[in-house]
Amino acid sequence: MKNVFFKALALCLCLVMVGAIFAGCNKKEEEAIVIGFSGPLTGAAAVYGTAVKNSAEMAVEEINAAGGLNGIPLKLESTDDKHDPSLVETNYNTLMDKGMQVSLGTVTTAPGLEFKALAKNDNVFFLTPSASGDKIPEFDNGYQMCFADGNQGKVAAEYVNGLSYTEIGIFYKSDDPYSKGIYDQFKDNLKDGIKTVDAAFTGEANDFTAQIELVKNCKFIFMPIYYTPASIFMKQAKAIIAADAIYYGCDGFDGLEGQLGEDMPTIPQQIIMLSHFNSKATDGKAADFVKKYTEKFGTDTLNQFGAAAYDCIYALHAAMDAAIKAGKKIDADTSASDLCEILKEQFNGDFKFSGATGTDIKWQTNGFVEKAAVAYVIKEKNA
Questions:
Q1: Nearest CA to 322 among 353, 363, 359?
Q2: Is 5 exposed, middle or buried (CB count within 10 Å of its CB: 0-12, 13-18, 19+)?
Q3: pTM of the model
C-alpha cells in the first residue's frame, strides 16, 4: 500500500509541476504592456472612436511585429462610451481590471473630463489623440496629441485675422464643452474691427432654420462643431447661404465627407478645416499612414482622429524605449503609477516625435502639444 501511496503522490507532484510549467508559459504569452482607452465605438460619434481603435490596433500590430517594447508586446484594450460621460467610470474600472498601465484617455472631450479625474487618482499617464478640451490635461498626468480647444480657437482666429472680412458668422453648440471652448478662445483672439453674428444651438437640434437666417448674409462662417450638425446645417442652408461663402471648422469636421456622402457635390460653398493631418497627402508619414489605413479599413473612417491615435501609440512606444535606454525599467509588471512618472519625465524633457500628424512634435509641461497647423480644404466651392 505504501508503494501505491508514494506512486500516487509522485504522480500528483508531477501533475502539479507540469501545470505550473504550463501556467508559466501562459503567463509569459500573456505578458504585455497594456494600453487602454474609452471612446464612442457606437452611436453618433462612432466614426471617431472606430478610427481611433482601428489606427491604434494597426500601430500595435506593427510595433509587435518589429519586436514590441524591448521584446515585450503591446496590447490595446478598448471600451465603448458612446460619447456619454456617464459610462466612463465603468469603462475606466474595466480597463484597470484588464491591467491598463498607460492610456489614450478618451476620444471626445465630454467623456474625457470624467476620465481625467479617475486617471489622476490612480496616477495613470494618458496621451489622448482627440479629446481637445482645454481642461483635459489639467493634471500633470494628462497630455494631448491633438490641439487643445483654446489653441484651435486661437489659431482659427489668427487665420481669420489675416483675411479681409469685417463681418463673419459663427455657428456653434453653446452647451457642448468642445464647441463652447473653441468659440470662447476664438472670440478672445479675434482682432478688433471684425464683427461676429453668433448663431448658437443646444441639445440634439436638427432644424437650423433660425440659425441660418441669422448668418445668411455672411460670406465666412466659423463652425466649431462636430460633423453631424455641420452636415445638417450645410444641407439646409445650401440654397440660402451665398454660394461663394466659406465654411470653416476645426477637428470636429473630420468625418464630414462621409456624413454628407452623395450630398457633398450639392453643397456649393467651400469647406475648409483647421487640421494637423492631410488625408490626401502624397508623401511622407501622413501618406504612409493613409495607404496602410485605407488598404486595411477603407476610407469611411479615415480621419485625423485615427492618424493622431496611430501617432499616440508610436509616441508612447518611442518615449518608453527612450526611457529604457536611459536606464529605466519598464515591463509588463510596471505599475501604472510608476510608468506615469517615467513618461512624465520624458514628455516634460527634450523628447520629440515625428509622425503622420507632424514633425518634431513636442509637449509643454501643461500637456498641450506643439506642432504646425494647416487649413485643409475638404471641398472647393462649386464652379
A1: 353
A2: exposed
A3: 0.77
Provide the β-strand partners of residue 353: 361
Please give the chain's pLDDT, 383 residues, in tens.
445 444 544 544 444 444 444 444 443 347 999 999 999 999 989 999 999 999 999 999 999 999 999 999 999 999 999 999 999 999 999 999 999 999 999 999 999 999 999 999 999 999 999 999 999 999 999 999 999 887 889 889 999 999 999 999 999 999 998 999 999 999 999 999 999 999 999 999 999 999 999 999 999 999 999 999 999 999 999 999 999 999 999 988 988 888 899 999 999 999 999 888 888 888 999 999 999 999 999 998 998 899 999 999 999 999 999 999 999 999 999 999 999 999 999 999 999 999 999 999 999 999 999 988 778 889 999 97
Cell of 305: 482622429
Query: 275 with 376: CB under 8 angstroms?
Result: yes
DSSP labels for 267-294? --SEEEEEES--TT--SHHHHHHHHHHH
Q: Which residues pair with 35 in a beta bridge?
A: 76, 102
Query: Among candidates 298, 276, 293, which has minimal Cα distance to 354?
Result: 276
CB 167 within 8 A of CB 151: no
**Cα 126 from chain centre:** 11
